[in-house]
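subagent[fold] <- orchestrator: predict structure for attached chain, return tokens only, no commentary.
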Amino acid sequence: MHSKITAPERAPILAKLQAAGVPVEASGHRLAAYSYDASNYRVPPLGVVFPRSVDDVRAVMAACRETGTALISRGGGTSMAGNAIGPGVVLDFSRHMNRIIAVDQATGTADVEAGVVLAQLTRETERATGGSLTFAPDPSSKNRATIGGAIGNDACGNHSVRYGRTSDHVHEIDVVTSDGALLTASDNGVRATDPSDAYSVSRAFQLGEDLKKLAQDNLSAFRLELGRIQRQVSGYHLANLLPENGLNVARALVGTEGTCAVVVRARMKLVPKPSSALLVCLGYADVVDAAKDIETILDFSPAAVEGIDEAIVDTMRLRRGDDSVLGLPQGKAFLYVDLDGDDPDEVARQAALLLERLEANGRLVDGCAVPDSAERATLWRVREDGAGLSSRPASGGESQAGWEDSAVAPQNLAAYLADFRTLLDDYGLTGIMYGHFGAGCMHIRITYDLRSEEGRNVFRKFTQAAAELVVRHGGSLSGEHGDGRARSALLSHMYSPGMLAAFEEYRRMWDGAGILNPGSITDPDPFDANLALEGIPEREWRTHFELRPVEAAAAGADPWVHAVQACIGVGRCRSDSGGVMCPSYRATGDEKDSTRGRSRVLQDMVRGARTVDEGWKSEDVREALDLCLACKACSNDCPAGVDMASYKSEFFSHYYEGRLRPMSHFSLGWLPRWLKLTSRISPLVNAVLASPLGKVVAAAGGLTTKRAMPKFASGKMLSDALADFAKTPAAADTVLFVDSFTKGFRPEVAGAAARVIEGTGRQVSCETDACCGLTWISTGQLDAAKKMLGRTVAKLDDGSDAPIVVIEPSCAAALKKDGPELLGTEAAERVSHRIQSFAEAVKQWVDGGWTPPAVPSAVTVQTHCHEYSTFGATVQRKALAALGVANVAEATGCCGVAGNFGFEANHYDISMKVAQQALAPALESTAAETPVLADGFSCAMQVKQLEPERKSLHLAELLDPRNTIPKKTPENTQGPEGPASRRGRRQG
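subagent[fold] -> orchestrator:
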């Protein structure tokens, strides 16, 4: 185990950095977040620096050299081998050194800083060149991995069959060495980046001579042992120094994992973008059969040949619903083959010919071309989320990295996989397989038990045997993730003693001080040292939420510990586009405000707290959770299934026990109680809030004075809205749950919803005297929340199976998900199965034969995050499509209010930054006459804040037969059976 770093050990380097004017962070939550990457390892750093310039990097390098402190470079922190963590100072380039300096179409290069995210470079390249050029490397982590990290690992990606590795796309790299030189590595040597920098000029000359001599001294070994297969990434790529390769120092630096120099800038090569592409999806009985067809597939010069097994598909469907995987053929293992070219017809012809050839081989179970862009997107999403999805598969258990990157020649892949499966069986392990089949590189997560000594013994023996196996098949320990802490100690299986000595000499030439990323490649740490799951105290953390206790017991962990350890660090929460997660990170760009950063602080809490009580009172955790909007998006978007909203609620329930809570936890957390009062005196309340005294009242309640307050509704307004439904029918077949937000602020929506349900031919009863407890849940007042939920469940669990349609999406989500998890009763489960959001119900009604009223031809919709996460990411879009809305502009992202968050004084500014991610741009591009749908009350309030003159609508109002919204056609607004004659309102 890595020993705990004490404050005295940190003092020298921190003092040096402060004296040099370099900001360094060493708070508990910061160190926790940077103790992990996406590997099995945990190594606490001494401090974290976010450099803004090369001068900052050189200053940090000098301080580390003078104090003998390790220096670790980091980009997106998605390394699966442990090469982005270390025991010294971590340089995170992603936050500030992330500029795309130039895209030069004439030379086909891009000049970028080390922290540029790969997907951003791809987008900017295609924009700047009118779609004629692109940046090719596209690992699954491309929307958060950086150029510096890709260079460090020699990352590849889904289209590596066509485009190869990052080393194939590097032109020049600017680096800082441990002695402070600023050098440029090129395809024919190394030079000083600044010709006027005398020391760097001298250093470059000597280094160039040393590298030539190293190559000359090892001509035979470099030619025989290196570059034998396409994906031989393990070790250093010293064959690039050979005379026949022109002393390509840039390519030789790629894949050095930050052990030789610190990458600060690079000129990367761009490639032409094909004008037409077609995905062909193939189904097989197993991965071995799939691998046997690889050589046939490669005859068609595909751009990509990727594979996954059924465990990943099953988990995707379990987490996100059946429609999250579309267009998949029959089978238990699947290949994605991307064919491309300039002529779409010729591409389609090649796809048909490929299927014909594979059918003739006799192994293909099913196959099809996938021309639909939506289906292609879901299929690629499954592949890209493979690491996270496979970490806790639908079949149960946990899988780990460690042997997730082996590679062989493609023609040897089937034999290797057959032998590998036998090896797994010998050790009683299961491997979940996915990866770059066309390049012979397999990502296999394995069901090691790293929590127990017995399980770790199996891990040690299996890993040694696996290394021997891949070498017997002529392969490499690593195919793109690098060796890091996971495989460096195994390099002796793959290389001769002479080659290992050459690696050591090469590293010393660059890093004479020996401070860069220690523990990787040469003089490695044991691969079973510093395991993150080792040494977690066995304690009981009592929780309010039911946190999958059966799965936790199977893993040998407390349910709370098991839950917060769901994050394995793949970092999808750090992406800047796609999905909703994580709005706070997208607003601040700070790791601590990502789902991953918060998870890491929670993981260190259960590890490092001396007692359970001390853990629940952690200030580091409270600070890390402060900007969490509790939007629940991570519970859908995170491949590993992290549910930070629940973790935040649980933590706050313990943290504030015996402590004074923020005033907003009373003013907003108790809102349903206050609404009972305001419904009686709403004119007075509204008058006060509209007066200068309103700001005083808001401030006293912990609320922002910058946000317009909603007008409170009276009890009479609700009675009037539901006047036609005052009597409960004898045989109501649908319950309309009128939540506190609807009752208190927009009762007209309740009337609209009841009329829509009536128009479907259903008999509706209205439940107006129950509360889901959401505001207590979101503020962590869980004892009160459970009491509230218990009463509501008792009322709703009436023995019927009538659907319960909830107007407010967040309340629907609370009854659907939080109710069973907090109460843990069969009654809560029964009620949960009956809960529907309004949009979900609408889709079901249309599918069941209801003819909806005429609708506008276009709408803009803001889907509530809780509805997105609990009822499906496409629930609103599917409902609108079923209704016949032709053009749907969806603001895919959190609105920023998120219940109490956006109303709190200390969160208003972040709330408005979050709104700029999706909602504000959507509104700006929406015509004044186009309806804006915001079923969530929070979302509606943010629309009002952004554009006060625009009134948003609930979907029920759009469909209300009494509305005056312009329709596309004068269609019949009644259902096939006409309006129901029996109406009802259920009283408490």
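orchestrator: received. Logging for downstream: The longest strand covers residues 276-284. The CA atoms of residues 855 and 967 lie 5 Å apart.
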